Amino acid sequence: MDRKVLLGVTGSIAAYKACELCRLLAKKGIEVQIVMTGHACELVGPATFRSLSGRPVALDLFEEPSAAVHHIELAKSAPVFMIAPCTADVVNKLAAGVADDLLTTTALAFTGRLIIAVAANAQMYLDEATQTSIRKLEARGVMVMAPDSGELACGDTGPGRMPEPVVLVAAAEEALRSSEALKGRRVVVTAGPTREDFDPVRYLSNRSSGKMGYALARAALQMGAKVTLVTGPTALPAPVAEKLDVHEVISARDMCAATLDAAREADIVIAAAAVADFRPRITSETKLKKYALTELAEQKEGETVITVELVANPDIISQLRELREDLLLVGFAAETQDVDDNARQKLQRKGLDFIVANDVSRTDIGFGSEDNEVCVISGSGQTRIAKSSKFEVAWRLLELVAASRVC
Ligand code: CTP
Fold first, then answer.
1. Which of 10, 58, 89, 323 could share a disulfide with 35, CB 3.0–4.6 Å?
2. Separation between Cα atoms, residue 230 and residue 286, nearest integer Å
3. pLDDT tens per residue across span 215-256
4. Does ligand 1 lie within 6 Å of residue 252's CB atom?
5. Residues 154, 181 contacting (CB under 8 angstroms)
């Protein structure tokens, strides 16, 4: 795919941050074509963007000299169109299909990957009109980058700050990746933790954020697969894409049922979820009261101790192997010690084709962090993937899986 990005700048005070964004994209070797609205030009001069991008800035539908139909030429000129900052006004226009200047006509004619980074006053962002527009755009496959919260230019505090340029550069780089390595394949990804209820307010769970599984789902989509994401509870926005089905589940048993069902039609299952191995034997329908628990307690070494009975959850990936011998199965091994050895044993015990070993005792990778560093082990050898973003790790892993003899 061409490493070209159309960068649309609209009239928010965050337009000054788009200068840094433009510079960072260019530094990554990405060709940047700037499109500015009239309001953006009131805040930052086009000459600044011209020198940062090394190209003339597109400003006017009717400017001379220009291509025969300026906005159509622009729309066809890059695979990724990022509008950053994107004001609430432009969000609402895009959702309604309004095309009344160069930026919005170009967006309407654009058929590639559209990413918008909203920057607005908190109230304007949270207004029902803007929120409805965002949902509409997401349903059409537009990637909407939610604003950060904090102090805003107007003095108010709340959501509305444009995400930092480094975050936007990572999103643009991700969108520029494409391959046909998994074209026509049906991939199921499990992600996140599971939650096992003690009662309506308390549960047993783990630290999985779901980021690795979500990155795998996005990478598989960009490699041409049809993807089913079975996700436990996470704080991540549910991805939206035409070839993606998302099943939100809570407990290991729910995840097991949804995964087994989705796997019937699948070619590949990647189990990135951190499934709780055990659940409370009894789940109370009403909140367990402290006094009632205390009555059941015993005294041990000066402390009040209660004993909870746990029962084993189904091992989803082992059940999948029993169900379908022909399925390509990829598991994850979250380990804190003897990482590779433990992972190799799990590969055999669970009948997997690949296992991805990661060291969750490190704080700079794995659970919750943005990066990962893994060792991909199969029956025929192993490949180390150096520390990189979870999307990059997902991409490299899927390339290995797609190129394997079993795929
Ligand atoms: N897994 C699963 N069902 C479970 C537990 C785990 O499908 N009930 C999957 C995970 O999604 C992962 C792999 O099995 O792909 C290994 O998970 P992990 O928690 O590392 O292994 P466990 O079998 O739980 O072993 P241990 O807790 O002893 O490390």
1. 58
2. 28
3. 999 999 999 999 999 999 999 988 888 899 999 999 999 999
4. yes
5. no
- Distance from the alpha carbon of residue 135 to the mean position of ligand 1, in angstroms: 35
Among 19, 22, 86, 154, the active-site one is: 154
Q: Is the CB of 346 under 6 A from ligand 1?
A: yes
pLDDT digits (tens, 9 = 90+) for 168-222: 999 999 999 989 999 999 999 999 999 999 999 999 999 999 999 999 999 999 9
- Residue 66, Cβ neighbours under 10 Å: how many? 16
Please check whether residue 305 is in contact with residue 298, taking contact to mean a CB–CB distance below 8 angstroms. Answer: yes
Q: Which atom of ligand 1 is nearest to the CA of 259?
A: 7
Give the position, in ligand 1's atom list, of the atom nearest the Cα of 313.
Answer: 8
What is the C-alpha to C-alpha distance for residues 37 and 24, in angstroms, rounded to an integer?
21
What pTM was estimated for this model as a whole? 0.87
Identity of the residue numbered 398: L
In angstroms, the CA 253 to CA 259 distance is 10
Look up 407 and say whether it is catalytic.
Answer: no
